[in-house]
C-alpha cells in the first residue's frame, strides 16, 4: 500500500473538501445495462464544479496550504480541467492563480480558466515548453506549484470520488477509472483497497495513447509520445508518484480504440441524456470491447468530466 497516503489521510481529504465540492450523483441506465449485460453505476463527475473530478484534487491541495504558503498564490501547467479546477479553488480562497496553458488547448477550457480569474500564460504545446514557462512564472511570482497529478494532496483529493461510491454501493466487482497522468486512477485504487478491498480496479486508456498500459505491464514509465486520440484529457504520462501507486494497487489497464470511444460517448449522450467528454467515455469503451469479462458483473465507472467543445464533436 502507500505509506504516505494512509486511509486516515484519504478520509481527512474528504472531510476537508466536503463543503467545497459537490457530492456528484451515481446514475444507472437500464438500456446500457441491457446492451452490455452488466449492472453499471456511473459516477457523474461531469456534474462536479468546473465540470470535472479535478476540482477535488485542486481543492484539497489549496486547502492543505498554510497561510504563509498561500500568500503568493498557486501555479500549474495544464491543458484544461486541472487549470480550471485550480483557478476556481484559488479564487474561493481569494489567492492568485497562474496557469501555463498550451496555445492548442480547447477554447472552452481557455474560457473557463479566464472566467475564474486566473492569469493565463500561453506556451507551445510540448511538455518542455510547459515546464520551462512554469519555472519562469514561479521564479517571478514565488507561487506554489500544484502539479496536476504528481502531488499527494491532489491524489488524496481525487480519491474522494471513489470514497463517495463506496459509501453508497456494496459488493462491486469492478471499479473503472480513466488514466492519463494517473491522479484519478491512483486515488481511486487507494480508496478501493481501503474501503472495498474485494473490488477489482481497472484503468481505461485510449489505444492511441497507451503509455500507461505499457508502463503498467513493463514496470517502467514510458513517456507519452505523439498520442493521437480524441481524449484530450488523457495525453499525459504517469509520474513517479502515480506510477508507484498504480503498479502496486491496480489489477489491470485496458485500452480502447478511437471508434469504440466515440461509440461509448454517443451511447451515454443518447441513452442517459448527459454530456460527457471523450476522456470519460473510455471507461465504457473498454467494457464494450471486453464484454465477456464484465458479463453480469456489478461495476462502477467514473465519468471524469463533461467539458466538450461543441464545435468540435467527434460525431455528427
From TrEMBL:
<dbReference type="GO" id="GO:0005524">
    <property type="term" value="F:ATP binding"/>
</dbReference>
<dbReference type="InterPro" id="IPR036052">
    <property type="entry name" value="TrpB-like_PALP_sf"/>
</dbReference>
<dbReference type="InterPro" id="IPR000634">
    <property type="entry name" value="Ser/Thr_deHydtase_PyrdxlP-BS"/>
</dbReference>
<comment type="similarity">
    <text>Belongs to the serine/threonine dehydratase family.</text>
</comment>
<keyword id="KW-0460">Magnesium</keyword>
<dbReference type="GO" id="GO:0030170">
    <property type="term" value="F:pyridoxal phosphate binding"/>
</dbReference>
<dbReference type="GO" id="GO:0003941">
    <property type="term" value="F:L-serine ammonia-lyase activity"/>
</dbReference>
<dbReference type="GO" id="GO:0018114">
    <property type="term" value="F:threonine racemase activity"/>
</dbReference>
<dbReference type="Pfam" id="PF00291">
    <property type="entry name" value="PALP"/>
</dbReference>
<dbReference type="GO" id="GO:0070179">
    <property type="term" value="P:D-serine biosynthetic process"/>
</dbReference>
<protein>
    <submittedName>
        <fullName>Pyridoxal-phosphate dependent enzyme</fullName>
    </submittedName>
</protein>
<keyword id="KW-0663">Pyridoxal phosphate</keyword>
<dbReference type="InterPro" id="IPR001926">
    <property type="entry name" value="TrpB-like_PALP"/>
</dbReference>
<feature type="domain" description="Tryptophan synthase beta chain-like PALP">
    <location>
        <begin position="17"/>
        <end position="305"/>
    </location>
</feature>
<dbReference type="GO" id="GO:0030378">
    <property type="term" value="F:serine racemase activity"/>
</dbReference>
<dbReference type="GO" id="GO:0008721">
    <property type="term" value="F:D-serine ammonia-lyase activity"/>
</dbReference>
<dbReference type="GO" id="GO:0000287">
    <property type="term" value="F:magnesium ion binding"/>
</dbReference>
<keyword id="KW-0456">Lyase</keyword>
Amino acid at each position: 500500500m502507500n505509506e504516505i497516503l494512509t486511509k486516515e489521510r484519504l478520509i481527512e481529504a474528504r472531510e476537508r473538501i466536503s463543503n467545497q465540492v459537490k457530492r456528484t450523483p451515481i446514475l444507472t441506465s437500464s438500456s446500457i445495462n441491457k446492451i452490455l449485460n452488466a449492472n453499471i453505476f456511473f459516477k457523474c463527475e461531469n456534474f462536479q464544479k468546473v465540470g470535472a473530478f479535478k476540482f477535488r484534487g485542486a481543492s484539497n491541495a489549496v486547502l492543505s496550504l498554510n497561510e504563509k504558503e498561500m500568500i503568493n498564490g498557486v501555479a500549474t501547467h495544464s491543458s484544461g480541467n486541472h487549470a480550471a479546477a485550480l483557478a476556481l479553488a484559488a479564487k474561493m480562497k481569494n489567492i492568485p492563480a497562474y496557469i501555463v496553458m498550451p496555445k492548442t488547448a480547447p477554447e472552452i477550457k481557455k474560457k473557463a480558466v479566464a472566467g475564474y480569474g486566473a492569469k493565463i500564460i500561453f506556451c507551445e504545446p510540448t511538455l518542455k515548453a510547459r515546464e520551462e514557462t512554469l519555472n519562469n512564472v514561479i521564479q517571478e511570482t514565488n507561487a506554489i506549484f500544484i502539479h496536476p497529478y504528481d502531488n499527494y494532496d491532489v491524489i488524496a483529493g481525487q480519491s474522494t470520488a471513489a470514497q463517495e461510491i463506496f459509501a453508497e454501493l456494496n459488493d462491486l466487482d469492478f471499479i473503472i477509472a480513466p488514466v492519463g497522468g494517473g491522479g484519478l486512477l491512483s486515488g481511486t485504487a487507494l480508496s478501493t483497497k481501503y474501503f472495498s478491498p474485494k473490488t477489482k480496479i481497472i484503468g481505461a486508456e485510449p489505444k492511441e495513447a497507451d503509455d500507461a498500459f505499457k508502463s503498467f505491464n513493463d514496470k517502467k514509465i514510458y513517456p507519452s509520445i505523439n498520442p493521437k486520440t480524441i481524449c484530450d484529457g488523457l495525453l499525459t504520462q504517469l509520474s513517479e508518484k502515480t506510477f508507484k501507486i498504480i503498479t502496486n494497487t491496480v489489477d489491470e489497464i485496458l485500452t480502447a480504440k478511437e471508434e469504440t470511444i466515440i461509440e461509448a460517448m454517443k451511447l451515454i449522450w443518447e441513452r442517459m441524456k448527459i454530456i460527457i467528454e471523450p476522456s470519460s467515455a473510455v471507461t465504457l469503451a473498454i467494457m464494450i470491447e471486453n464484454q465477456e469479462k464484465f458479463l453480469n458483473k456489478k461495476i462502477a465507472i467514473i465519468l471524469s468530466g463533461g467539458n466538450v467543445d461543441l464545435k468540435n464533436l467527434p460525431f455528427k
